[in-house]
Amino acid sequence: MPLPTSPVIRRARLGAELRQLRRREGLTLEQVCDRLGWASTSKLSRIELGQSRPDLADVLDLLDVYEVPPPQREALIVIARDAATSRGWWKALGEMGERQRTYAELEAGAATIVDWQPAVVPGLLQTPAYARLRIAAGRLLDPTVDVEADVRARAMRHEVLRRTDPPRYTAVIAEAACEADDIPPQVRQEQLRFLVDLAGLPHVTIRLLPRGVAARGGAQPLTPYSCYSFPDPADPRTVMLEALTTDVRLATTADVDRYDQLTGWLLDAALSPEETSAALSRRAAG
Asked: pTM here?
């Protein structure tokens, strides 16, 4: 069975490989585009930066220019097909917002996912009612948000945790996120029961960070983040930082290693999975 892949990560890897090949040949963006008859360098630049879905014919032309030998050529064609593909449930949900689509593509091919959330329940763990309230609040800042479309998309994203080959998922959630006063009691209790149910899955780990408890040395991140690793070790591990209007993707080894270390400190300070389930069950009981 082929390994699941994440299109956004395969685009990033393909771009890095093509950029390395171009530099190995000592060619500039302008020289390559002149040879291929491309009108400007922006097309090649976007491919190398992983910012667009590559056309396979364009990739084949680039491999010809760089005179890539058969074994490497075949491997890059596989990566290019993964990078260009639109298969998967997110294609059918064309109404999904671009930010949520990025997370969906990362989750689709991930082997492991780690979430840190200091204020709200992570998106992968939200019930429809809870998600609707959170998305509607965001619409106050961005009137273009389609609340119901994003709620449906978020519900579909949950399926990654129910599939036959799910990623190993870990969430560290600040206790305050489970006590939000702006959430109606019935919605909050339903959400808490949902967390308890998910925590019973063998590949899901949920840990609460109690109030007043900080990670080592007080190094407690105020910004939510998600960390992803992938079945193919050559695909770059990735961290997504969630900001107000956009998200930041980090993929250098130094950046990802720092977040791995920070996650370890959060896990050291958090309640155990058993203590977390007990605490969530008590809250869900009212």
From this structure: 0.83
